[in-house]
Specification:
The chain is mainly beta and 570 residues long. Helix content is 8%, strand content 44%. The longest helix is centred in the first third of the chain and has 12 residues.
Amino acid sequence: MPSRTGTGFPYPNICSATATDAKLTNMAGFAMVPAADILAARDAICNGEVIVLPTPTPTPTGLPYPVPTLVPNPPTPDPSSPLPYACGSCHAMPSRTGTGYPYPNICSATATDAKLTNMASFVNVPAADILAARDAICNGEVVPAPTPTITPTPTPAPELLPAPTVEGYTLIDVGDFAEGLNNAGQTIALSFDPATGSYQVALMQSDGSKTSLGTLGGYYVNPVMINENGDVIGISDTANYSSTGEQHAFLWRSGVGMTDLGTLGGLYSYPNWISGSGDVVGSASTASGEQHAVLWQSGAGIIDLGTLGGPYSDASRINSRGEVIGTSDTASGEQHAFLWRTGVGMTDLGTLGGTYSYAEILTDQGDVIGVSETAAGESHAFLWQSGAGMTDLGTLGGPESRVTGVGPSGEIIGVSLTGTGESHAFLWQSGVGMIDLGTLGGTWSDPFSINSSGEIFGVSETASGEVHAFIWRSGAGMTDLGALGRSSVSLSGDNSAGKIVGSLTPNGFDGTNHAVLWDGAQLIDLNSLLAPDSGWVLNEANQINDNGVILGRAIVNGYHSRAYLLVPAP
């Protein structure tokens, strides 16, 4: 799809794409534009059609920009419309479907318009190309369709404030996004590169240095996980993506670079987990179009783990013994949890009498914890052990229970419905069964983690409807840790030292979330460690490693979203 800039869209087959084309429907969904409208706009350029745009008349709408009227009597907005602005024929960029784009000021938008630049960055299209294509329609111009040449247009990087001073820490600006954190302080950084107009993925060290991961020959790369050795797994477009849509799993390793993990003869593969030794599990498509669980091992390549008789399986975890868990279709169409072992193959873990089971946690001892349907149609947490099979962990009187974690001694924590319909945190112990941990006075509680001392951390509703953090200890019960005066707190990461990070939600809808740390004795709003005029607001703390390094997100200058590392001072 060419433009007057001569660079074109990086979408070679758009002129022949249908309404079900994956890239086109993704573009339509992100920009909240019906696929038919993108097709109509595409036809106007690819076929050299001319669309005459009537002079718009601004109409008050309550939106932060005017919505022009394109017909004498625009239709009444349809409240059932899935679009955020009910359409009819009331938008500035018409199409042959008569619905128009839900982007009222696109015909006057500039290259710095926020919605246009967001659209451009999401579909990897230079803003200048979207503008040129827009002009061809809004101004009724005809653009011939030569073979496009993909040349990303450089875009100025946003102006950001310098990293602030944080009491007791060094703050490192990681980039636009970050994924994963290991005990070496390494994370996977995603940053917009103005030179190429695309997002670049790199391994970032705790000193701020970066090593680019590259791609598998395509334009897009998405990291999934990093292990303790700094090995990174993810997916990337291949060099054939523009013609075939191929996306492959990759393993990146320092000194080796990015390795294509391949497929089982199909077009895609996806990794879910990497072990400390570098073994990777996930799924891959076959030449016949099925999806099978796979294991990638150094020297062995891709191993098809098979299925339980159906066309689908997916591997989700691998432990230090090389055992793998996942879910597979059976020959009868049910979905069952499985355990795969070298020399044994795939073992069906069965169900609690119902039609499904899902494996969620795998211990290094080979125990599997998950959820299964019972013969009565209820959903119960289960523990599967070799030789014992599947044990129903029960409920607190209601029809449902689920697991959220496992302790170092095999204790299981989770949530269950009670006989009165409330949702309570529980602790399950072998020989004891399920213990109701109660609440802080409200109707629900949710456990987050359990440490080596048997202490359980979580969040609970209070009698006043707020959400506070709690710690539960045997013999002492549940203790309210508060929310530092805010309406709620959520927990998202912990380490072996018992420190936990999360976020505080403001009272009302006009504030900003604040990152929070439980240091073993008290909750600390991490923003209290910043200078008040820094321009930074630390609004999320997502992970903390065993050395106390924190990975989170911040808002800079009031609207720039940035990922950060907080590295404890020596």
